[in-house]
Every structure is written in C-alpha cells, then in structure tokens.
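pls design
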C-alpha cells in the first residue's frame, strides 16, 4: 500500500471508529489491523486440557480474608471486629464468615487458599503481580492471564465467536495494561453499562434508547457518507475494514448479540443471582461461558475499605454471597463447572488489625503479607483448604502460595505450558511464566487440588 493509501486507510478507520464504537474497534484489533502476530500455542506436554474457560471474580481493592474465608474469632475484637461467629460449611472442618451462609453450603464446590502472599501493599504493583505472576519493574510490561488465555485460546487458535475472547464486566481495572507487550489485539473488551438495568447498554453493541431499526439506519447513513471507501472498492485495507464492520454489525443486530439480553432469563433465576450489578454480572458471565468465551473478568469494585469497613461489609458481603454461590450452582447444574475455572480474589488482603481510630473509624488497610483466594471448577477440586495463616491472620503459618503458583496451576489446567515461549516485540526469549532462576518465588503447582 502506498503512503497516500496508508494515510487514507487510517482516515477511514477513524471514520468507522465513530460509527462502530468500542466493539467495532475490538473486532478490528482482533482481525489483525492492529495486531501483534502470535506463535503456536504452548501446550502443556503430556497433559489433557480440563478447563475451557475462566471466570475471574476480581475483588478490586482487596478483600479482607478475616471477614470472608479465613475468620479468626479467637484473635480478639481488634482483629475480627463484630464478625466473631464463623459458620460451618457443608464440608466438615471448614468454617467461613457468618455473612456468607449461601457460600457455606457450596464449600464442596470450591477450595480456599489461606496462605497467599507476595508482600506488596500498592494497588498497581500488587495487581500487576497477581495478574501476571511477574515482579513489577522489569524491562517488559507483561500481559495479564486474561490476555495470555486470549492469545492461546483466541482467534489464532480456533476461537470462532464474534464476541472478543477476553471480556471484562463492566470496566477494566485501570491499574496496568492488561494486554502488556502483546498489544491491543489482546486488550480486554470492557462492556461498560450495568447488567442490572432494564436494558444492559453494552459499549458498541447495545445502546440505551436505540432500536435495531435505528441502528441499521445509522449504518446506511454511514455508508452513504463514505465517499472515500466508495471510490476505492478494491483497496485491500478497506476490504479488511469492511469485513470487521460486517462482523461488528452481525454481532450488534444478529443472534450472537442477544447473549447480552438478560430479559430472556427467568425472573426466578435472576432473583437468585441477586438484582445487583454484581449478581447480574455473574449471570452474564455464565452466559458468556455458554457462548464459548474463554476468559471473563467480573471487576467487582468497592473493596478498598480504609474507612468504616464493617458498614461496607454488611452491605456487600450478602451481595457477594448470593451472586457467587448461585454462579457456582448454576454452572454445576448446566455441566459447565467441570470445564470452567472460577477464581475469586484481589490484589491483596487487608490488615488483620482493625484501625479503630479517626479518620478510619473501623477501617482496614492494604495487606499483601497474607490473604485468601478461592478456586473452583475446571479441574480444581472442591472442599479443600490449602495452607494456613497464623492465629491473627498476619503471616502464612504453613504452605505459602505465591502468585506464580496460582497462575501456573490455572495455565496447566487450561492446557497452556507455563514454561512455553511467549511472543514479544523485542524478539526476546520469554517464557509464559518466569523460571526459578529469575528470582520468582514459587512453591510449585497446587497439586493438592488438581
């Protein structure tokens, strides 16, 4: 393509961006116009893939382990606060916070890691480590697990869906570039909107107050104004853009886009999930798994509870309990849990000792020394506890688990070789996960529950 044609293509691309919005641009990226070429998938040697998809419940801000899956009633009021009556689960010997009665009855479906650790207390750096398995500050910005799964399970390797293979409900974290050096082709598609609203307004797909007929009229107007494209019908660059446009509108106006229409679900099931943004996001995640999307993140914010922590917990824990417990049961009822990893956790935990003094008034701060993560499905066994924290939840007392152990275990179940090569723009020899000689802390895979 000549310099002039390249300039024209960019101009037309910008023109289409205005017409198609975020979803159209996501499809353009995934169809190669902004892509970075991937290599062959790094399959785990000798292993059978058990997981086909991941639902990540990302507790944005960092949830307290003492007030969720690692209660410490004997630590005293300065540590456990008003939540000092943990409840038994349906697995003998495992107790969780009394604010999670529905999850207590699903403990046979998930396992709890009570000794996660990395020692970082900053949101951005801790999130990067938990999402990539890499220490922050290295030469390259590494991709998150969602981007890696999109690379090895996405368009280059058999994924046929019109919906991008890496979806975030409903907003990206904003803590770091999830796609890292893989580039915009592997950036997650953030839906925006609120699935709990009467109409889930998905960015670039479903517009509030815009009918399908009006959307089609807009497309026709767009074409009538596209004098540049009409004057160069055989231009290869324009043909690629036209193909992306067709796919985008097929999603907007076709059958696939109806996956975002939660009104097709029974009211009773929607009520079970909870009529909240989080509850309906859990339902939406299940629908996306059924559609074949390999990686979905529910970005569940509100957990950075520096002030009046327990007021927030009394509001949010029942919401989390209902949505997450129903998701696990719904996946199981539809025979999807065995092939879908569900992982719950944030960038770190929160300080075991409560900050009663002003201005915190009963808050908990950032804490990366010891916290909890929950895993279910996709080859992970339920009804187990890995590791333990000490009497006050301040440090791992046994079997510390590091981010690399967690992520590497998920990669193995997904059939991705953690020791395989990862393409990068500098042509460096880079593994999917760092090796021990790079100084990465690791105790190995979570074989107890795999």
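designed seq:
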């Amino acid at each position: 393509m000549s310099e002039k044609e390249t300039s024209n293509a960019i101009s037309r691309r910008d023109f289409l961006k205005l017409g198609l919005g975020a979803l159209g641009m996501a499809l353009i990226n995934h169809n190669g116009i902004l892509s970075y070429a991937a290599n062959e998938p790094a399959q785990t040697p000798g292993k059978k893939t058990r997981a086909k998809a991941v639902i990540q419940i990302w507790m944005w801000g960092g949830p307290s382990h003492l007030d969720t899956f690692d209660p410490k009633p004997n630590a005293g009021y300065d540590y456990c606060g008003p939540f000092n009556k943990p409840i038994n689960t349906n697995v003998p010997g495992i107790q969780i916070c009394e604010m999670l009665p529905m999850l207590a009855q699903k403990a046979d479906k998930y396992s709890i890691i009570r000794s996660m650790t990395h020692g970082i207390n900053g949101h951005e750096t801790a999130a990067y480590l938990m999402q990539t398995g890499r220490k922050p500050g290295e030469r390259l910005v590494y991709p998150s697990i969602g981007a890696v799964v999109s690379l090895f399970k996405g368009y280059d390797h058999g994924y046929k869906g019109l919906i991008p293979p890496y979806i975030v409900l409903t907003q990206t974290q904003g803590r770091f570039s999830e796609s890292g050096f893989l580039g915009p082709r592997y950036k997650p598609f953030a839906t925006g909107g609120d699935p709990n609203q009467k109409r889930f307004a998905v960015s670039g797909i479903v517009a509030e107050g815009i009918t399908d007929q009006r959307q089609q009229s807009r497309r026709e107007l767009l074409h009538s104004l596209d004098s540049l494209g009409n004057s160069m019908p055989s231009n290869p660059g324009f043909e690629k853009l036209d193909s992306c446009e067709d796919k985008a509108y097929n999603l907007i106006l076709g059958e696939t886009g109806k996956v975002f229409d939660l009104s097709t679900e029974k009211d009773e099931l929607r009520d079970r999930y909870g009529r909240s943004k989080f509850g309906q996001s859990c339902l939406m995640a299940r629908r996306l798994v059924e559609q074949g999307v390999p990686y979905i993140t529910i970005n569940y914010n509100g957990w950075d509870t520096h002030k009046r922590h327990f007021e927030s917990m009394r509001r949010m824990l029942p919401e989390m309990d209902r949505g997450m417990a129903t998701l696990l049961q719904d996946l199981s009822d539809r025979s999807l849990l065995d092939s879908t990893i569900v992982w719950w956790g944030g960038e770190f935990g929160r300080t075991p000792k409560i900050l009663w003094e002003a201005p915190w008034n009963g808050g908990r701060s950032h804490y990366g020394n010891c916290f909890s993560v929950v895993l279910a499905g996709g080859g992970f066994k339920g009804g187990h506890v890995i590791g333990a924290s000490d009497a006050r939840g301040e440090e791992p007392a046994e079997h510390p688990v590091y981010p690399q152990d967690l992520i590497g275990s998920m990669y193995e179940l997904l059939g991705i070789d953690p020791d395989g090569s990862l393409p990068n723009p500098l042509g460096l020899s880079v593994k999917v996960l760092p090796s021990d000689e790079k100084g990465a802390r690791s105790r190995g895979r979570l074989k107890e529950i795999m």
